[in-house]
């Protein structure tokens, strides 16, 4: 059976450093790395300028790579409150950029992403980077780590999306048989 | 001396209820209410849809009222963490909407706003509503309270902006005399 390739743009949100990774693949098979980058902004700059810079760069990456969906790391409330606000704002910009481009957006918790690429929701950053390097068959680990996390999100979305699609397909065909 | 009228759009950010108030005036004099509204979204709806709804409504209000600047309430880390994330995301959308429209954005803490309209940074919501109603010479208090807070932000910005402008003017003329 020929399975259609999916192209996913993953975002590891952050105001100072926002990781972006673009991956192509099909559920359950090794994926291919298309691009990765980190969008940075000066912590001393004006909030409006920082959000605008992030928005423009994300919109440009979406336009350039034409992903069919976007995966964003879900911001957690148990984190340090000061950090979480910047992360929440960067995540909002990412989700909005995808929505404005008409793309479906899915959010994943850090443990869902870790479990998808390492088999354990408790894996550390190093393990995630190692597995991303291996799964995408890269010559060297993606640097910085924010980029590796964004690539892991995209891989997670391709694989989990496959599971969801197979479920919907099974439900549809079961209903068809009724 | 003829002082130019300023039109300011104030935003009291919230994902479920986002207050917006448009006010016109000059520093130190009573302001005039132009419009106020609350942009609501369903807490059970998808985050992408909620952010997009807020973004579109804010962009539409900015286009309709053509403010020369935007004032947004600054999100505070000491609040409840769960609430603060939605508020931070709504604030990010508001700041971004203003920046994308090329407008300057200023953020104010809740106590700065309270102090500006009631004289006390510890004033309660009722007192803010009472003073907004009085300062804008409205027949009835603006409802709901989110709208009153947004109008208070706009008033605060007009008045404090005036102080800042006079300070910059004084600095400029002092430098000119050197």
Features:
homodimer; 178 residues; alpha/beta; Nucleotidyltransferase, domain 5; 5 helices; globular
Task: Please summarize what this structure is.
With 178 residues, the first copy, chain A, is an alpha/beta fold. In chain A, 52% of the residues lie in helices and 19% in strands.
What features would you describe in this structure?
The structure is a homodimer of 178-residue chains. By secondary structure, chain A is α/β, with parallel strands linked by helices. Chain A has a single domain, classed as Ribonuclease H-like superfamily/Ribonuclease H (Nucleotidyltransferase, domain 5, 2-Layer Sandwich). In chain A, 52% of the residues lie in helices and 19% in strands. A five-stranded mixed beta sheet of chain A has the order 3-2-1-4-5. In chain A, a hairpin with a 6-residue loop joins strand 2 and strand 3. The radius of gyration of chain A is 16 Å and the shape is globular. Chain A starts with 5 loop residues before the first strand and ends with a helix. Chain A binds chain B through residues 47-49, 51-52, 55, 75, 77-78, 81-82, 84-85, 88-93, 95-96, 98-100, 104-105, 107, and chain B through 46-49, 51-52, 55, 75, 77-78, 81-82, 84-85, 88-93, 95-96, 98-100, 104-105, 107.
